[in-house]
Amino acid sequence: MDKRARSTVPQFRCRVPTRLVDQLRGKRILLHLSRRTEPACIKVVTIGTDVAFSLETTDEAIAAARHADALEHLQRLFDLTAAAPVKLHHRDMVALAGAVYHTYVWVHEDDPGEPGRWAWHKGLSRAIFEGRIRDAPPATLKVDDSDAGLLLFGTGDLTAAIDALPAGQHDGLEARFGLLADWALIRHRIHLAPDQRKHFLKLVAAASLDASWQLRRNAEGDYRPDPMAQRFPPIDSVAAVKPKQSITGLFELWWKEAKATGRSQSTHDTYKGAIERLVKHLGHDDAGRVSEDDMLSFKDARLKVVSAKTLKDGDLPGIKSVLGWAVDNRKLAKNPADVIKVKAEKKIRTRPKGFTDEEAKAIFVACLGYSQKPKEDAKTAAAKRWAPLIAAYTGSRISEVLQLRKEDVRRDSGHHIFDLNPLAGSIKSGTYRLVPVHPHLIELGFLNFVDQCVDGPLFAKGSYKRVVDFVRTIVTDGRVQPNHAWRHRLKSISRDRGLDPRVVDAIQGHAPRTAGDDYGDVSVTAMARVINAIPWIGLKDSKRTPRRSVKVG
Question: Measured between alpha carbons, how far is 93 from 63 in angstroms, rounded to an integer?
C-alpha cells in the first residue's frame, strides 16, 4: 500500500486514564475486532499513555464497528483494573475458556487454510502445555507458527519430535496463552484472583488445543460437529459474568419501586432529565462502565453551563439515588457518583425572597386585566389570570395550583376550600391538604369562574412555564423566583401579624417542626382564621376591580 492509500485508513486512539497509566504502561493486550460479515481484525497492542493503531480498513462502517469494539474492550480493562479480584469455581473457568475455543472456531472455520498450519499451531501449544518447551510465540487467534515450529523441531515428524522432549520441565503458559486468557477475562468483565491465574491458563491452553484439532479437521474437509465443544458450560451460567446494566434501565427499575412507595411524577421527570444528561455526556448507556473519573468529568461539564446549586439540587439527587439504589439491590458494586462533592454556594441576598407589596399589586393588576389572546387556549388564559392570585392567598406552589380540578373547589366545615390533592397531580409532600379560599378571591369572582367551568381541570395542562413567563414580564427582577416568592411572602406576612406558625405550615404543606406540633390536626376552621387575617392585596383598589373572568367551555 502506498503512502497516500495508508493515509486514508482510519486510526484508533484512546487516552488511558491518568490514574491507570503507571499500572498499565507496557501491558500488551489482544483485541478481536471482527464481525461475522467482515474479515477478522486481530490486533496486539501495547499500552502507554494512550492506545493507538490502524483500523486496517477504508470502509467507514467497518472502521466504526472496529473502533467501537476496541473502545468497549479497553473501557472494560480500565474498569477491571480498579475492581476487586473475584474467585471462580472450576466450572466457571472452564466456561470462560470455552469462549477462547468458540472464538478460534468462529474466526477460522469458514477458511481454515492448509491443515499443516494447524499442525504447527497445535504442536507448539501442546509442547508448552505439557511443559516440554519454555518459549513459543504468543497465541493471538492468528495462526502463523510454522517458522517457530521449524526452528524448534525441524522438518521431521512433529509429533515424535515433541514427544522426545521430557514433559514438566518448563512453564511457558503465561507467555503462550496469557494474551488469550486476558482477552477472555476482559471480555466477560472478570478480574480473576491472582492465585487462580495458572489454573485458568491451563484451561485456556486445553481449549486452544481442542480448537486447533477441530480446525485442522475443517481444513481437511471434515465439518462434522466437534464433540469436544459440548464440554464447555454456557458462558451465561457463570455467576460472576454480569449482564450489561443500562443506566436508563436502572432508572426504570428504580422508578418502578419509587412509584410504589409514593414518589411523585415530578420527581420522576426531574430524575429522568438528570439521567438523560448523564448518558448524553458519557456517550453510552452502560452502567457498569461508569467510573468515578466519568462522574467528575460530568460535574466539570455541567458546571460550565449551570450553577453549582443547579448541579447539586437538580442533577445529583437523581443520579445518586438511582445508582445508589442499584448498589443496594446488588446490580452495581459501587456508586461512582458518590465521588462528587459540590460545596454549597454562599448565598448572597440583596432583596427579600418574597414579592414586595408593590410587586404583588403589579401582578394582581396584570392578572385581573389579562385578556385572552387570539388562538390562545381559554384554559391557558385562565391560568395566567387566576393561578398567581390563588398562590398569593394560599402560599401554594404554582404547579400545585395549576393541577386544581373543578371538584377540588368545594365547601368543607362551612368554608369554601381548595382541595390540593395528589389525585390531581404531584404534591411534593405526597399528602392532600384543604386550604380555605381567601375572601378577596371570592370578591374577585373566582367561585363564579369555577361554576362556569366544565368538570375536570380548571387550567390548561402544561401551562406552568407560560404562567411563570407571564409573571416574569411583570416582575423582571431575576433575584426573585416566581414559583416560590408567594410562599415566602405568605410566611413573612404571617410572622408580621403573629399568626400561628403551625397553622401556616399546614396551609403551605410544610411538615410539623417538632414532635409536639405533629399531635392533633390543623382544622379548616383554624386555617380559615389565618387565611382571613391575610391582608387584601391592593386593599380597596382591588375591591373595585370589575368581576371579569375568562369563560372556559
Answer: 32
Element containing residue 46 per DSSP (H, E) = strand 42-46
pLDDT at 541 over 90: no
Q: How far apart are CA 115 and CA 120, in angstroms?
A: 9
Half-sphere exposure of 58 (CA within 13 A, CB side): 6
Question: What is the spatial distance between Cα 411 and Cα 304, in angstroms, rounded to a whole number?
Answer: 51
- For residue 415, the cross-strand partners are 412
Beta carbons of 281 and 301 less than 8 angstroms apart: yes
223-233 per-position pLDDT tens digit: 999 999 999 99
Q: Quick one: pLDDT at residue 151? A: 76
Least Cα distance to 53 among 62, 38, 63 occurs for 63
Parallel, antiparallel or unpaired: strands 415-420 and 409-412: antiparallel
Output 10 or 237, whichever has higher pLDDT.
Answer: 10
CA atoms within 13 A on the CB side of 521: 5
- pTM for the complete prediction? 0.49
H or E stretch at 411: strand 409-412
Residue with cell 495508508: 6
Residue 32 belongs to what H/E stretch? strand 28-32
CB 15 within 8 A of CB 78: no
The three cell numbers locating residue 119: 499442525
Q: What is the DSSP letter of 519?
A: S
The full DSSP string for 297-341 is: HHHHHHHTTS-HHHIIIIIHHHHHHHHHHHHHTTSSSS-GGGG--
- Please, are residues 373 and 382 in contact by the beta-carbon 8 Å criterion? no
Question: What does the alpha-carbon distance between residue 329 and residue 337 come to, in Å, rounded to a whole number?
Answer: 16
Looking at every residue in the chain, the average pLDDT score rounds to 87
Asked if residue 433 lies in contact with residue 420, where contact means CB atoms within 8 angstroms, the answer is yes
Q: Is 455 helix (H, G, I), strand (E, B) or coil?
A: coil
User: What is the rounded average pLDDT of the residues 499-504?
Assistant: 91
Q: For residues 140 and 183, what is the distance between their CA atoms, to the nearest angstrom?
A: 9
220 CB neighbour count, 10 Å cutoff: 12
If you count DSSP H runs as helices and E runs as strands, how many of each does the chain have, helices first? Answer: 24, 7
State the pLDDT confidence band at 3, using cuts at 50, 70 and 90: very low
Burial class of residue 8 (count of CB atoms within 10 Å of its CB; 0-12, 13-18, 19+): exposed
Residue 126 three-state SS: helix
